[in-house]
Amino acid sequence: MPGSVYGSTGFDARSPRDGAPMREDEGMDLLADGELIELEAAGARVFVLGGGRRLPAADAVLRWLIADASGVPADDVELEHACGVCGARHGRVSVPYPLTASGASWYADVAVSGDAIVAAAATRHPLGVGMEVATLDAGSVIDEAAFHSSERAALDELDPARRALVRATLWARKTALLRAVGHTDFIEPSRLALSIPGDDGGTGSIVRSVPEFGSGWRKVRFHDVPVPGNRAASVAVIA
């Protein structure tokens, strides 16, 4: 489990440690090296990139995904990693340019974990991306801070091998949700209870919410996406 329990970015998408900037002629290579997933029901596109080669910068992958859908050059796509309310680096990525066909802003986010990048973009609904490494034992203190009592009970019933991946998926979902929401009052992840991965067919939902979310929690869906390595990733979409 990560040290930041409350859904902060966890990385700088512009940092050199995420790889060298992607050249313009590398766009077509991404399709061969990664997987483009269409979440048609959510109106979102997700791109998963990982493996042995040196990764491009996370921002470059997200720019390519938006450019591929919008028809503008990737170099022209503008990304901002600052909250529109407080200016802090939390929540999903903002896209000042381009706009969608209707004149609205794109919804977009990107996550990095080791040698994997997951980028997502949509025109209709806010979204966030979370990705976490599966660990056999995260520790009771972290689990109590991250998971609802019902989630911890469900995890305790699983065999250790499956428990690690389910735990990582739950945490990836919560991270994605908090990034999709962006600026909000302080919310402890352990107050939220989600459906259990594996029992919900890979499309999760909130089963117990908090007052801060109002009635909107019923419209949240978590779309788990396959990623290479011992990790889990999910895209939270607020429909």
Total helix count? 5
Low-confidence stretches: 1-21
Amount of beta strand: 25-35%
In helices, the fraction of residues equals: 10-25%
Distance between the termini: 28 Å
Strand/helix succession: HEEHEEEEEHHHEEEEE
Radius of gyration: 17 Å
Question: Any idea what the shape is?
Answer: globular
Describe the strand arrangement of the main beta sheet, using strand numbers: 1-2-6-5-4-3
- Our count of domains comes out at 2
- Main β-sheet: number of strands, strand sense, barrel status? 6 strands, antiparallel
Mean pLDDT: 85
Q: What class would the helix/strand composition place it in?
A: alpha+beta
Number of strands: 12
List its traits.
Ribosomal Protein L22, Chain A; 4-stranded antiparallel sheet; 28% strand; 239 residues
Topology:
Layout: H1 27-33, E1 34-39, E2 44-50, H2 58-70, E3 78-80, E4 93-99, E5 105-113, E6 116-122, E7 127-133, H3 140-146, H4 149-156, H5 160-181, E8 193-194, E9 203-204, E10 206-208, E11 220-225, E12 231-238
Antiparallel strand pairs: 1-2, 2-6, 3-4, 4-5, 5-6, 7-12, 8-10, 9-11, 11-12
